[in-house]
Design brief:
By secondary structure, the chain is mostly helical. The chain has eight helices and no strands.
Length: about 190
C-alpha cells in the first residue's frame, strides 16, 4: 500500500535512509554570487557589473548617469555625518535589525564615558560631539533649502540605502539630484 502525501522527486540525490542530500557550501555560494551578478547586470548593465559602486544605491545612480561623482561623494559624506550624530545620541539605526526590543532595553551602544575617561577626555569628546552636531545642522539646513522632496529622496537613498520606488510619488531621481547638488555645494565639492 502506498503512503499518502507527495511523491519524491526522483532526480534528487538521497542518502540510503531516504533523506535528501544538501548541496555543498561552495555550490550554494556560487548560486548566491550568480544571483547577485544577475541583479547587478539588470540594474547597471553587463559592462559595469564588477564596479564596486554597483553595490549600493548612490553608486548605481552614478553609474546610470543620473548623478555625478561629486554628488555621490556629498551623499556619502552626509550619510556618514547622520550616522555619527545618531551614534553620539544612541539613536537606533534605520534598518530593521536595530529595532529589536532587547537592544533598546539593554542600552546597546551606550558608552559609560565617565567611568573610563579623564575630565579632559570627556571635555574633548563633548566638544567633538557638539562640532558634529553643528556640521550636521548646517548640512541639514542646506538640504532643507533644496525642498522637502529632495530631503526625503536623499534620506531614502543616501542614509537608508534604498532605491527610489517608482510607486512612491513623493520621491524621484530629479529630487535626489537636487538634494545631492545642494549638499555638494554645501560641502564645497562643486561651485555655484
Amino acid at each position: 500500500m502506498a503512503k499518502a502525501g507527495r511523491k519524491r522527486k526522483s532526480n534528487a540525490p538521497r542518502y540510503q535512509n531516504g533523506k535528501a542530500k544538501s548541496r555543498p557550501r561552495y555550490e550554494r555560494r556560487d548560486d548566491i554570487r550568480r544571483t547577485v551578478m544577475e541583479q547587478r547586470r539588470r540594474i547597471v548593465g553587463a559592462d559595469k557589473v564588477l564596479d564596486q559602486r554597483a553595490g549600493f544605491p548612490l553608486g548605481v545612480y552614478e553609474l546610470r548617469g543620473q548623478i555625478t561623482a561629486d554628488e555621490r561623494r556629498a551623499g556619502e559624506k552626509y550619510a556618514e555625518l547622520v550616522m555619527a550624530v545618531r551614534r553620539d545620541y544612541d539613536v537606533p539605526r534605520p534598518d530593521a535589525k536595530s529595532n529589536y526590543p532587547s537592544d533598546m532595553l539593554s542600552g546597546f551602544g551606550r558608552r559609560h564615558a565617565d567611568e573610563t575617561m579623564t575630565d579632559e577626555q570627556l571635555r574633548q569628546e563633548r566638544e567633538a560631539r557638539a562640532d558634529r552636531l553643528k556640521r550636521y545642522n548646517r548640512a541639514f539646513e542646506a538640504l532643507q533649502n533644496a525642498g522637502r522632496r529632495a530631503n526625503r529622496s536623499v534620506n531614502r537613498v543616501a542614509v537608508n540605502d534604498r532605491f527610489i520606488d517608482d510607486n512612491d510619488l513623493s520621491t524621484s531621481a530629479s529630487d535626489l539630484k537636487a538634494g545631492l547638488r545642494a549638499l555638494a555645494l554645501h560641502f564645497g565639492y562643486v561651485r555655484a
